[in-house]
Hints:
CATH architecture: 3-Layer(aba) Sandwich
Order of helices and strands: HHEHHHEHEHEH
Bound molecules: flavin mononucleotide
CATH class: Alpha Beta
Strand order of the largest sheet: 1-2-4-3
Mean pLDDT: 97
CATH topology: NADH Oxidase
Distance between the termini: 34 Å
Low-confidence stretches: none
Radius of gyration: 18 Å
Oligomer: single chain
Number of helices: 8
Amino acid sequence: MELFEALTTRTSKRDFLDKPVPKEIIEKILSASLRAPSWANSQPWEIAVSTGKTSEFIKNSLYGLAKNGTAINPDYPFPNVWPEKQEANMFETGKHRFEYIGIGREDAEKRKEFTLSNYNFFNSQTAIFIYMEESLGLWSVLDCGMLIQNILLAAHNNNGLGACPQAYLTVYPDVLRQAFGLPKNKKFILGISIGYYKTDSKINGIKTFRNDFDEIVKFYD
Ligand SMILES: Cc1cc2nc3c(=O)[nH]c(=O)nc-3n(C[C@H](O)[C@H](O)[C@H](O)COP(=O)(O)O)c2cc1C
């Protein structure tokens, strides 16, 4: 796929087929993605790929904790308050998503069910987790973001493959440390569900809006 086509057509996928992604494909995606730039080539990222029984353990554990209403404790705390503009963007995106898939505002049960499906990797068998040493800071999180976007685009470049970056997968990080046998000083940034997505699923057809170009970009001569 041509690069500009990949940039403009990638979307998050949230309904996957129950079909494994061959290990060689994951390796190919990750080895190319690891060409991402980083501060002085520090390469702060570490990656855990979960499949099979490990995925089952993570899915069941996260789902169980969330369903019981266990308080979240992500390693990188979620913002409590967003500036007005970003709050409005998020509100609009959520509203459009639920309208698009036909879940009404009043249908709290269906909304909750959809949110819980995050913990099931949206039915994918595979998830990629990005984590790093706790003493690393903000700049290293930025580096990991570049790696993550590479992974999303590389997945999109493979026919039939899709991905969803998910903060939700990091809300109970002790589960992840247990699953991967990691010490406390390894901190989770993001999970990415990756798999063959259902092409006929409504939710996979969502194209999210972007703010007007001229509102964002200013040229200064
Ligand atoms: C850091 C980060 C965290 C995200 N967390 C979630 C998540 O937990 N669940 C989810 O369904 N989507 C999540 N997303 C996906 C965003 O909702 C999505 O990227 C955004 O709505 C734009 O849509 P698009 O990716 O289809 O262009 C996350 C994206 C990013 C970059």
